[in-house]
Specification:
The chain is α/β, with parallel strands linked by helices and 243 residues long. It is built from 10 helices and 10 strands. Helix 7 links the parallel strand 7 and strand 8. Bound molecules: adenosine-5'-triphosphate and magnesium ion (MG). The site of magnesium ion has 3 residues, from helix 1.
């Protein structure tokens, strides 16, 4: 079967720094893969290249068999990939429903402004990620970190995404909020969503992934089951900072 996402020999240089170093990976449709590595390993840079926010120096990215690595970000979103951000990036002057609405029309802000509101679909998405009804008209400044992370996920759902890239989805959350996001991801997995999940919280990541890829200095250092990767000597030494 055609994989959902296939990255081949991806390289990204920022001047002299090689942030992605000959990285290849495959995610099968409806699989969930963890992407781990120490700070600065290049995880977010991989996401930015998948979305076209950074253009790769070389290599290719295929989504369901289509080469997307030269497409614009809205084209990639239309093909079925979307991401969340490590630091949530909502529009601060829009409420929860309005923020979700922007996700529905990534390529046409003007149409969004001039078309009638579609509150039912936005509300449906907001409630599906666990927002309380009373919070739907709140602005991001009034939300907890847990709700901001839910909003990030709601905005990707609104694009109709098939492959969801989650960047540090558990960072800054309470234990209760981590449990809520875990339940949400599990239910989306059951519904057939494909995931690539970056998380420093390995305990939270474990139940959510079929396999894990570890990178360091932009290069893949291990791949396999969660426990195999955790026990890998190169992974252990990269986290400890030892040679
Ligand atoms: N726009 C940029 N310009 C120059 N260097 C960059 C840029 N973005 C990232 N880098 C560098 O690329 C490397 C990888 O950064 P990246 O943010 O992808 O790491 P990360 O694995 O997501 O780290 P963290 O766990 O801290 O989020 C780092 O050395 C970083 O300083
Ligand atoms: Mg990062």
């Amino acid at each position: 079967m055609t994989p959902a996402l296939k990255i081949s020999n991806l390289v990204k240089k920022f001047g002299g720094l090689v942030a992605t170093n000959d990285l290849s990976l495959v995610i099968e449709d409806q699989q969930s893969v963890g992407l781990i590595g120490p700070n600065g390993a290049g995880k977010t840079t991989v996401f930015a290249q998948i979305m076209g926010e950074h253009r790769q120096t070389s290599g290719s990215i295929e989504l369901y068999g289509h080469e997307i690595s030269n497409d614009t970000t809205p084209e990639r979103i239309r093909r079925g990939v979307s991401r969340t951000y490590q630091v949530p990036r909502p529009f601060t002057d829009m409420n929860v429903l309005e923020n979700i609405r922007v996700g529905m029309m990534p390529n046409n802000i003007w149409k969004m402004i001039t078309s009638p509101p579609r509150h039912s679909r936005e509300t449906e998405i907001a409630l599906s990620v666990g927002f309380a009804k009373a919070d739907l008209t709140k602005t991001p400044g009034e939300l907890s970190m847990g709700d901001l992370r839910k909003l990030e996920m709601a905005r990707t759902i609104a694009t109709g995404t098939k492959v969801m890239l989650l960047d540090e989805v558990f960072a800054g959350l309470t234990v209760a909020e981590i449990a809520q996001i875990t339940t949400l991801i599990q239910s989306m997995r059951k519904d057939g969503m494909t995931f690539l999940i970056v998380s420093h919280d390995l305990k939270a990541l474990e139940p959510l992934v079929d396999s894990v890829i570890a990178i360091n200095y932009g290069r893949k250092i291990a791949e396999g089951s969660f426990s195999d990767v955790m026990n890998d000597s190169a992974v252990r030494s990269s986290y400890l900072g030892a040679a």
